[in-house]
Amino acid sequence: MAVYKILIILIFNCLTVYASKQVTESVNALLPEDGRLNFTQLAIKYGHPAIEYEVITEDGYILKLFHIPGTKGRPVLLMHGIADSADTWIIRGNLSLAVSLANSGYDLWIGNIRGNRYSRHHVSLNPDEDDAFWNFSFHENGFYDLPAIIDTILNKTGADMLNAIAHSQGNTLFYVLCSTRPEYNSKINVMMALAPICYLQNVPPPLSILIQLSPSLYKLLSDFDINEIGNHNSLLNTFEKIICTRPKIGYAICIESIVFPIIGYDNEELKPDFVPVLVGHFPTSASTKGLYHFAQVGLRKTFAQFDYGNAGNLEKYNSTLPPVYDLNLVTTKIVLYVGLNDCISTIADVAILRSQLRNVVRYIVSPRLECNHLDHVWGEHMNNYLFPYIYDVLKSYK
Ligand SMILES: *[C@@H]1O[C@H](CO)[C@@H](O)[C@H](O)[C@H]1NC(C)=O
Ligand SMILES: *[C@@H]1O[C@H](CO)[C@@H](O)[C@H](O)[C@H]1NC(C)=O
Ligand SMILES: *[C@@H]1O[C@H](CO)[C@@H](O)[C@H](O)[C@H]1NC(C)=O
Ligand SMILES: *[C@@H]1O[C@H](CO)[C@@H](O)[C@H](O)[C@H]1NC(C)=O
Ligand SMILES: *[C@@H]1O[C@H](CO)[C@@H](O)[C@H](O)[C@H]1NC(C)=O
Asked: Which residues does the Swiss-Prot or TrEMBL record annotate as the active site (predicted)?
């Protein structure tokens, strides 16, 4: 029992304790240049300097929004997924979506939700000290972050609507926003969902097992006062950089034993040479509440707000059950792009989402049969199996 406790405390410490500046610097020195550069620096390196904006949400979070100016069509907003950041759209360099769209002249806006490495700021809360900072899930990301980002873009461009491309949780935020604040439907012309995430009741193991265990895991983390996971400077991320970049064994441990079982196996698109770049950017901070909220959606088989239990729900929602998001209110045009080998956004769960959305204008199954949950952003050959569909959507729904 004592050994077990010490182990847990050790692991938890890795989540919460920061590596010293010296350690971080020497570990980062092991990474290739693209693993070390941040979004702004990568954008310059690949020929498209970005302008930075600070977006302040109604509830005081300060988010970083990047703009790569262009002249073609409506503004295009890219929204990343959970534990991820704007980086995800550019870490493939010349092969990435942000660079491809910028080369084609689109006016690009790349968002960051509260908590991640660029948006770990608040007008009054301190993310290192105040638990309240981390008291959010995809609900707040969709209800506060996304509308603040959209309004900033429309304000700066003078456009009346934008187009959006959103990966994983990034597209969940649109279902939350458009169902809770339906007036935003008319500000979004089309949203292309890569790896659509809404229902999670058909995911296979090991994720399904984690979902089953999630109430105990969340309680354990809360008991230890851990509400942030994946901090850029945590010991855990430092170990990730050290272990995952070891030749051969690093790929076997990190990618083949941990990442692929969860997201779907596709070693052609994520080869060992990309791992040292990837670990410099992923994961970045997410809230444990946000992860648990998704697990609740899987357990309850209902796309609803956070479940605080009967008493908590009564207090917060004046109802013993959390309010369900009404997908009937999502009227904006939606394109669903799915991978047959995606173990998180499964065909069966996307089918439920598709049957409940009113305006799915296209449903596309990736021609790459091995397409998993992250190939859309991290894949090496997205220009073959994904970008043509994106360009076609942007041209068709001007
Ligand atoms: C990127 O890194 C440079 C150099 O450290 C820094 O000046 C800049 O503020 C960083 N940009 C962001 C968005 O963090
Ligand atoms: C990216 O592509 C452009 C145009 O093909 C090329 O000029 C540039 O050198 C490439 N950048 C890198 C860092 O590979
Ligand atoms: C988190 O927010 C909910 C409702 O928004 C509130 O009921 C709860 O007390 C908050 N918890 C913390 C730790 O701030
Ligand atoms: C943007 O917001 C500013 C400040 O609220 C306002 O003065 C301006 O008219 C807005 N611009 C557009 C195009 O909505
Ligand atoms: C709470 O719900 C009850 C029953 O639906 C309703 O009568 C009451 O007005 C609600 N109270 C508030 C504060 O909304």
From this structure: 168 (nucleophile), 342 (charge relay system), 373 (charge relay system)
Alpha helices in the chain, H assignment, sequence order: 2-16, 21-28, 33-36, 39-45, 97-103, 138-140, 146-157, 169-180, 207-223, 235-244, 249-250, 260-263, 275-278, 288-300, 309-317, 347-356, 375-378, 382-385, 387-396
Residue 142 banded pLDDT, cuts 50, 70, 90 = very high
| Ligand 4 geometric centre to CA of 55 (Å) | 14
Task: Enter the pTM of the model.
Answer: 0.96
**Residue 342 catalytic?**
yes
Closest CA to 58 of 160, 179, 170, 180: 180
Q: What is the Cα–Cα distance from 172 to 365, expressed in whole angstroms? A: 19
Of the candidates 168, 287, 345, 366, the residue annotated as catalytic is 168
Q: Which domains does the chain have, with CATH numbers?
A: 2-396 (3.40.50.1820)
Span from the CA of 396 to the centroid of ligand 2 (angstroms): 29
Q: Could you tell which of 133, 135, 180 is best to mutate to test the pocket of ligand 3, judged by most ligand atoms within 8 Å of the CB?
A: 135
The residue length of the chain stands at 398
94 ligand 2 Cβ < 6 A: yes
85: annotated active-site residue: no
pLDDT given for residue 1 in this prediction: 56
For ligand 2, atom 13: residue with the closest CA: 46
Residue with CA closest to ligand 2 atom 2? 94
**Residue-wise pLDDT tens digits, 122-140:** 999 999 999 999 999 999 9
Residue of 122, 293, 373, 376 marked catalytic: 373
Q: Which of 217, 173, 203, 209 is nearest to 191 (CA)?
A: 173
Any idea which ligand is nearest the CA of 144?
3
Q: How far is CA 21 from CA 15, 26, 232, 276, 372, in A?
A: 16, 9, 12, 20, 35
